[in-house]
Design brief:
- It is built from six helices and twelve strands.
- With 213 residues, it is an alpha+beta fold.
- It has two domains: 147 residues, no CATH class; 59 residues, no CATH class.
Length: 213
Amino acid sequence: MQTVPPGRVQAVRVVEPLLWRGSGWARIDVTVAGYVGERQALSSVLLPVAPRHIAIQMVGLVFPGTNPEAVPLLPARRSWLAPFGAGEAGTDDSLFVTRRGRVCRRLDVIAHARAQSVRLTAGPLQRLFGIGTVHIDAPPGPVQVAAENRDAGVTANVILPGTMDTPANRMAMPGEDFSNWVQPANVARLAVWLASDSAKEINGAAIPVYGNA
């Protein structure tokens, strides 16, 4: 057993195995920044078993002020690769959320402020059907958030933020002028706008966000 600082939790997964769903139970797995190997394995389960509503509340404690169940989700397109669909995905001002799995349901959650990068990949068969997978990258760990089999007509842009005003950065650099740092909420709003119809003609852009530096 280890104590996991909430600020180190990068991504969260609420797992509901088939045999648990009748009782309304769930487990929470997490990816923790800076933990590798055995230490990551020992810290990957945040909550071994609990009622599902308690698990959802726990996600709100890890990412304060959020509710993953309030995020609107859109289903993936059905195709020969996934005839029953490949789950759902969606985002709001704070979170990116995916939900998938019929036998074992998984709700994957990552805060915009914890995402390291966004990638769009497509294998040969996915390209044949005009679909791809959107990856929201976090540090290595058991929870990696990805929206599979999405329409490949989506745009792909890169946000290049300067130093982010996060608790971890403030602890690491206490002598710096925090007022010059980039606010995570501003980066999140930019990401949401880039994903909206208003920015549908912007593609392949690298957008620097340096705050007041």
